[in-house]
Amino acid sequence: MSLRFEQPVVDKITQSRAHIGITDAEIVQMVAAYRLFGFWRIDIETGHFFASEDVHAIFDLPYSDGPVNLAELMSRIHTEDRSLIAQTFEEASLHGVGFHFVYRVDNRLGGYKLVRSIGRFRDDASGGGIVGVTYEFVEKLRVVGFEDHAARR
Fold it and tell me: Which intervals hold domain PAS fold-3 (predicted)?
């Protein structure tokens, strides 16, 4: 599977959205409406992994707002890809870098689906750890339909 490390995004110019008039909350809502797109955080001190509802759905785990059962989560990842996950988190922590990687997750139908995780090391006032997002490559599109019950003219 592919893996790419990168430097933290500290020198990148922040993109302005003021002229558009869109908030961070609206961006998160729109991205989450597009596909299963989950957010997560690993607390380095405790080793606890916290994740949003979509991460739980991607791994077919029951949702909890407490720490995720990492043993259960890792059991859903293809055995050949598990060492990649451990290596990635170790390298990100040691060198303070960001990363992208693709790996296989049990689709609970006898096969695997491709999942991408993007993350970065964070060591600031909000605490040390790794934060990131995870999404499916072949997404289950969330579709909203509207019915028109108006009488035809």
Answer: 49-128
Assigned CATH for 37-136: 3.30.450.20
Q: Where are the domains of the chain?
A: 37-136
Report how far residue 85's alpha carbon sits from residue 131's, in angstroms, rounded to the nearest whole number.
14
Q: Quick: pLDDT tens for 87-142.
A: 888 888 888 888 888 999 999 999 999 999 999 888 777 677 899 999 987 645 55
**Dist. CA 115–CA 74, nearest whole Å:** 13
Q: Is 98 exposed, middle or buried (0-12, 13-18, 19+ CB in 10 A)?
A: buried
Nearest to 128 by CA among 96, 151, 100: 96
> What's this model's pTM, rounded to 2 decimal places?
0.75
pLDDT-based confidence at residue 2 (cuts at 50, 70, 90): very low
Q: Per-residue DSSP letters for the chain?
A: --EEEE--TTSSPPPP-TTTT--HHHHHHHHHHHS-EEEEEEETTT--EEE-HHHHHHTT----SS---HHHHHHTB-HHHHHHHHHHHHHHHHHT-EEEEEEEEE-SSSSEEEEEEEEEEEEETTEEEEEEEEEESS-----------SPP-
